[in-house]
Amino acid sequence: MNLNVAIDFLKELSLNNNKPWMDEHRAYYEEAKRIVTDFTAEILAGFAENDPAFSLIQPKDCLFRINRDVRFSKDKSPYKTNFGVNLNPFGKKSPKAGYYIHLADNNSFLGGGIWMPDKEVLKKIRQEIDYNWDEFQEIIGEKMFKKYFHFDGEKLKRPPKGYEVDNPAVEYLKFKSFTVLKPLSNNELSSEIIKSESLEHFNYIHKFIHFLNRTFD
Fold this sequence. Notes:
Blueprint lengths: L3 H12 L3 H6 L1 H23 L34 E5 L10 E6 L4 E7 L4 H13 L1 H8 L2 H6 L1 E3 L17 H4 L4 E7 L1 H4 L4 H11 L1 H8 L4
Antiparallel strand pairs: 1-2, 2-3, 3-5, 4-5
Helix pairs in contact: 1-3
């Protein structure tokens, strides 16, 4: 499976981000979407081997729409120039942590976690990290986790309310989101082993996802 077919479409779309072009190239878009959908189905099947909950969702439940919401944006371009896939058995709009695939020209990545949780969830995540710092440190310190993934997102300049500057977990408590990313090059997307490698890499952050979701229990 060559995901670069989808990347090629996105390149063209970025140069022609308007409805007339999309209408004229609808078949091209549908081909790109089909490739992303098929890849998503393969990843879901791989997840389901260890977690039956993933067998209950379909690729269409994971893919985000390519149409942009331009109501409150100065940029009125009607389409996103990426394909976003949220692999979460609780639904792509669930507040719980899940896995994510982002496909964009020279800006693709695998990831996972919780992006911009609401105030109460954020408070609980910080508490979970603070109370279980040794466990969290062990998870993010695992060799393969550190080798492939890095934390991404905005941070507070000062410790959040209720935490001191000398708290050993303070640099992680400052995060507003708890997401980790592994970049993917365009060349990697055309690899014959992209499915198996993606499943392998997602496995490296499984404990991280599970840790975050404990805050909802």
